[in-house]
Specification:
Strand 3, helix 5 (about 115-135) and strand 4 form a beta-alpha-beta unit. Strands 1, 2, 3, 4, 5, 6, 7 and 8 form an eight-stranded parallel sheet that branches. The chain has nine helices and eight strands. It has one domain: TIM Barrel (Alpha-Beta Barrel), CATH 3.20.20. Helix 2 (about 60-70) packs parallel to helix 8 (about 210-225), helix 5 (about 115-135) packs parallel to helix 6 (about 150-160) and helix 7 (about 180-190) runs parallel beside helix 8. The protein is globular, with a radius of gyration of 19 Å. The chain has about 240 residues and is α/β, with parallel strands linked by helices.
Length: about 240
C-alpha cells in the first residue's frame, strides 16, 4: 500500500525499479508468459525428454548428427539463417536425417535491442532461407538467448511459429568439458524436460566438440533414470504455453 509519508523521489525510484524488474522478467525469463505463450517444458506425463540444439548449422553439426544416428535418436535444431546460407549442405542433412528444424533468427541479435521492423526482418528472412535450403518450413521458434518482445510475438504469430524455450541447459556455451556439460543436464532433467545444447556458436569462435562428446553421457544418464529421448513435437502440449 502507498505510504503518503514516503518522499516522492524514493517512491519514484521504487516504481522505476519495479517496472524494470517486470520488464526484465517479461522479456528474459525463460518461463515468462507475460508477452505471449511460451513452451519451456514438455508434457510431464511421459517418461521422455527432448534434445534441442541452437546456433547451427556449423562444422560440428555433422558430428552431432552422427552421434544421434548411432543412438537412433531425433532432436530439434534451431537454426540461424545466415549460417544456413553458409552451410546449406549441413542444413539439408539435418532435415534429411529426420530431425525437426526451428527458426533461431537470421543473424542472432537480441530482439530487445532491435526495432520492431528489424525483429520482423530477422524472423522472416530466417524463415525464408531455412525453407528454401532445407525444404522445411519451421513451425517452431526460439529467440536468441530466449529474449522475447511484443514485436517478436507479433511476427511469430503471423508466421505460425510456436515459441519453445527450455528448462534444462548444458551451459555448453561456456568453457566446459563433456562430463561437466552432462552433469549440468542430468542435474535438472526430468520427465518432459526440454534440454538446451548447441551445435554451433553464434559468434563463430568456439567449436562444439565437448558437446558432441557429452551426448552419449547425457543419453546414458537419462536412461539410468528411466527416461528416453523423444522428438520435441511429441513432448509439447496440445496447447501452447507451459505444458502439462
Amino acid at each position: 500500500m502507498f505510504d503518503p509519508s514516503t518522499p516522492p523521489f524514493i517512491a519514484g525510484a521504487a516504481a522505476l525499479a519495479a517496472g524494470a524488474s517486470c520488464a526484465y522478467y517479461a522479456t528474459y525469463a525463460v518461463r515468462s508468459q507475460w508477452l505471449g505463450a511460451t513452451d519451456w517444458r514438455g508434457r510431464r506425463d511421459t517418461h521422455a525428454a527432448a534434445l534441442t540444439f541452437d546456433d547451427g548449422p556449423s562444422e560440428d553439426t555433422e558430428r552431432v548428427l552422427d552421434v544421434l544416428d548411432r543412438l537412433n535418436l531425433r532432436a530439434a535444431f534451431f537454426m540461424i539463417g545466415s549460417r544456413v546460407e553458409r552451410l546449406p549442405r549441413v542444413a539439408r542433412m539435418v532435415a534429411e536425417r529426420g530431425h525437426e528444424i526451428g527458426n533461431h533468427s537470421y543473424s542472432h541479435p537480441i530482439y530487445l535491442y532491435r526495432t520492431g521492423r528489424e525483429t520482423r526482418r530477422q524472423l522472416e528472412r530466417a524463415q525464408a532461407v531455412i525453407e528454401e535450403v532445407t525444404g522445411v518450413r519451421p513451425r517452431l521458434a526460439r529467440p536468441p538467448c530466449g529474449v522475447r518482445t511484443p514485436a517478436y510475438f507479433a511476427t511469430a504469430r503471423r508466421l505460425g511459429l510456436r515459441t519453445v524455450q527450455w528448462d534444462v541447459a548444458g551451459f555448453d556455451w561456456t568453457r566446459r568439458r563433456a562430463p561437466e556439460i552432462a552433469r549440468a543436464v542430468l542435474g535438472g532433467a526430468r520427465a518432459g524436460s526440454i534440454i538446451l545444447l548447441h551445435d554451433g556458436d553464434s559468434d563463430g569462435r568456439r567449436d562444439r566438440r565437448e558437446t558432441v562428446a557429452a551426448l552419449p553421457l547425457i543419453v546414458e544418464g537419462l536412461r539410468g533414470r528411466s527416461l528416453v529421448v523423444a522428438p520435441l513435437s511429441e513432448l509439447l502440449a496440445d496447447e501452447p504455453g507451459e505444458g502439462k
